[in-house]
Amino acid sequence: MFTESMIRLFAIVLERDGEKVTEALLDIGVMQSISINAFDNAAGYRDNFGPSAETIMRLSDLRKRIESFLGSAAIVPHIPQSIDAARVSRRNIDEESRRLDALAAELQQFRDRQRLLQNDILKYEEIKRQIDLYGSSFSSETLRAGFSYVSLRLGSLPSGRTTALQERLRETPSVIVPVGEKEDREHLIIIAMKRDRERIDALLSDSGWTPVELSADMHGVKNEVTGAVDEKLQALHKEQRRLQEESKAVITEKRDALLESWVRLRIDELYVKVQSTFRRSSHTLLISGWLPAARRHNVAETLRRATEGRCYIEWLSPDEVSDLHEERATAPVMLRNPRILAPFQMLVTNFGIPEYGTIDPTPFIVITYLIMFGLMFADIGQGAVITLLGILGMASLKLKRSQRALAALLVWCGGSSMLFGMLFGSFFGFSAVKPLWFDFHGIVTGQTHPSAGIASIYDILGITVKFGIVVISCGLLFNWINLIRKHRWMELVFEKGGLLGGWIYGGGIYCGWYMVTHDYRALPGVAVISVLLGVPALLLSLKGPFHSAIHRTSFSVTLLLKVVMEWVVELLEIFSGYLANTLSFMRVAGLGIAHVSLMVAFFTMAAMVRGNDPGIAASITATLLLIAGNIMVIALEGLSAGIQALRLNYYEFFTKFFHGTGKLFNPVGLREQHNL
C-alpha cells in the first residue's frame, strides 16, 4: 500500500578493495549509489575515486553509437542475466572509437547513395504529379501552358542518337518517350525538372536536337509518359532496397563483435558510474547509497565477503539522513507492485512519483480505472476485439517496454469491457445476451420495463455520481493517512483535503441526498445544516489565527482582513470544488450513453439500407455498414473512454492526496532491474 521502506548505507573500505566492492555492488544490483557532498561525516574524503565525468560520457556515447548501428539491423543488445564481471576485460576507449568511426565511414557510403536516390525519387514523383494535373493527352496548348516545376520538350534527333542521349542524361532526373520516326529522325518527348533546363538544353544542342511544334493532340502519349516515370521510380526504389540490404548485411556480418563491444562498454559504463560516487582519502574509500531496508543484511554480507571483513558499515534511516542537511537527503521512491500491474503503475508514474513514505495508488487505480472504462465502454464483442489487439501487441517483439505496457493495458480494458458487457447484455451493439444487472441499451432506447430497478438515464447518472463520491472519499482518506504519517497536523485539520474539508464534503453529500429523496423540495433542518456545514466552516476560520500564532505574527487590521478573505475564498473553493468534482463523474454515464447511441444510429442506418429489400446485396451492404460502425466505435469510443477514465483518476482522485514530488529509485546493476 505504501512505498518501500528505504535505508541509507555509509561504508568505509580500503582503497585496494575498491574494484571488488564495485563488482559486488553491481552484481547484487539493489543500491542507488549517491555522490557524497562535503559535510562533516565526510571530512577528509574530498577526492573522486572513479574516472572523470568525461570518461563516463565517452563510454555512454560509444555504447549508444553501437546501439544505433545494431538498431539499423533490428538487433537489440542485452546484458546476459548471468555474467562474471571479473572475466570481462575493459575496452580501450580510443581504439573502440576508431573502430566505430571506420564502420560509420563504411556505412556512410550507403547513406550518401541512398540520399541521392531519395532526391531522385522525389523529383520523379514531382514529375508524375505535374503530369497528372493535365488531361489524357499532351497538346500544343499544354506545352505552351507549361508546368510549375516541370519542363516538357517535343523534338527530333537524328536516328540512332537517342541511346547516347539517354546515357548522358542518366544522372539527371528525366523521362524520354519515343513518339515515332520519320525521315531518318526520331521524334521524342523529353520531360525534366525546370531547374535542369540549361544543362539539358546544352546536351540537346550537342546531339542535334530540333524542336517541333505540335499540330494536333497526341492521344495516348500521356499513358506512355506515366509508364516511363513509373518504371524509373520502380528502378530507384529497387536500388534503394538493395542498398538497405547491403548496409544491413555489413552490420549483420559484424554482429558478434558489436554485441561483445556493447556488453563490455555497458559494464565499463556501470563500473565508472558507481565508482564516480566513491570518495577517497589517503587509504580508504567512503561509499554511500540508498537501498530497500529489507535488503540491508544481504548488502552488508556481500560487502563483508568482498572485502574479507575489512569494512565499516553504518545504516541511517531517512529521518536520520535528513538531519545531515545533505543535498540528496530525501529517500528515493521504490514502488513494489506485481509485474501484472505494470500498466497501471505506468499510469501512476506518468502523473508523478509519490512522495517517499506515502500511499502508492497503483492497486487502487486498477479498480477505479477499470470500473470507469467498463461503464463507458460495455460490450462483450468489442471488448474481445480490444483484448485480442492487446494480446497481439504483447506478443510483438518490436515493441518497447512502455508500448508493451500499453498493450497489456488494452488487455485489462478489454476484459473490463467484456465484464460490463455481460452485466448490461451487449454484444457488438446487439441486446443478444440477458443482462446480469440492467439493460443499458434498453434504457437509452426507452424499451426497459418500468419495474426494473434501474429504469432511466437518471438512474445511470445516479450510479456514476455515487461512484464518484466513493472515489473522492477514498482520496480524502488517503490524504489523511499520508498527512498523519508525515506528522503534518495543521494540514490534516485545516487544508481543503483535511478533516474539516472532509467534514464539509460529507455534510454536503447528506444534504444533497436528503433533497433528492424529498423530490428536490426540502433540505435538512437548520440544526442539522449548522452541524454538518456551519460548524466546520467556522472552525476553518481558525486556520489563519493558528498560522499567525505559530509564526508569531503581530496583529494588525491588514492581517485580519487577509485572514477573513482567505477564509472566504477557501470556503468557496471547498463548496464549488467538491461539487464540481462529484458531478464530473457524470461524464462516465454520458460516454456510456453516447456509446449505446452510436451503435443504435448504425443499426438504424443498416435497417434503412436493408429496407424491404430481401436481396443479398442489401444484406451485405447493411452488414458491412455495421462492421464499419463497430470499428469506428472501438477506435473512437474506446480511446475516449480510456482518456476520460485517466482524466477522472488524475484530476478527481489523485489531486486529493497525491504529491508527485518523489524521485524514483534507480539502482545500478549488471542485470536488468524490474523495479520501475
Written overview of the protein:
There is one protein chain. By secondary structure, the chain is an alpha+beta fold. Among the domains are: 1-49 and 276-332, Alpha-Beta Plaits (2-Layer Sandwich); 51-131 and 230-272, subunit c (vma5p) of the yeast v-atpase, domain 2, CATH 1.20.1460; 137-219, 2-Layer Sandwich (Alpha-Beta Plaits). The chain is built from 23 helices and twelve strands. The strands form three sheets. Strands 1, 2, 3, 10, 11 and 12 form a six-stranded antiparallel β-sheet that branches. It has a four-stranded antiparallel β-sheet with strand order 6-7-5-8.
Strand content: 5-15%
CATH uppermost class of the domain at 51-131 and 230-272: Mainly Alpha
Which ranges are low-confidence, i.e. pLDDT below 50, for 5 or more consecutive residues? 140-144, 215-219
Helical content (DSSP H or I, runs of 4+): 55-70%
For the record, the CATH architecture of the domain at 51-131 and 230-272 stands as Up-down Bundle
Rg over alpha carbons: 37 Å
Estimated structural class: alpha+beta
In total, the number of strands is 12
* CATH fold assignment of the domain at 51-131 and 230-272: subunit c (vma5p) of the yeast v-atpase, domain 2
Shape: flat
Number of helical runs?
23
Largest sheet: 6 strands, antiparallel
Mean pLDDT: 84
Spatial gap, N to C terminus: 16 Å
